Amino acid sequence: MKEFYETYKVYLTRKNLEIVALVVIILSALMVFVSAIPGQGVLTLDKGAIRYDGTLVRGKMNGKGTVTFKNGDTYTGNFVNGAFSGQGKFKAKAGWTYEGHFVNGQPEGKGTLTTEANVVYKGTFKQGIYQNAH
């Protein structure tokens, strides 16, 4: 190590160290910027029980996509940091569907729930609960 230092100490000037520091800062900033660019991809989670196909940002489900669960349930719509958020449609294998607005993975706001028996509940939902019942 001492021989290495003796050979290259002539290059260890303040100016050269400042240039190296500046290059490292610029490369770090570029990496942060590039990792935030949305891209299409597929994620397989929980040992294959959950499959996501859609927009990824920093390895998370962000933007439009479709998630399919092992039991056959599907959700197609918008995601924010891995949760159903925004407009989307959840279709259960059991036969019921919810189409409308989601917040943090739950129906929230305007939407339509159609049961297995084709009974339709259209209106406002709060934390997944229909609010227009009389």
TrEMBL record:
<dbReference type="Pfam" id="PF02493">
    <property type="entry name" value="MORN"/>
</dbReference>
<protein>
    <recommendedName>
        <fullName>MORN repeat protein</fullName>
    </recommendedName>
</protein>
<keyword id="KW-0472">Membrane</keyword>
<dbReference type="InterPro" id="IPR003409">
    <property type="entry name" value="MORN"/>
</dbReference>
<keyword id="KW-0677">Repeat</keyword>
<keyword id="KW-0812">Transmembrane</keyword>
<dbReference type="InterPro" id="IPR014590">
    <property type="entry name" value="UCP034300_MORN_rpt-cont"/>
</dbReference>
<feature type="transmembrane region" description="Helical">
    <location>
        <begin position="20"/>
        <end position="43"/>
    </location>
</feature>
<keyword id="KW-1133">Transmembrane helix</keyword>
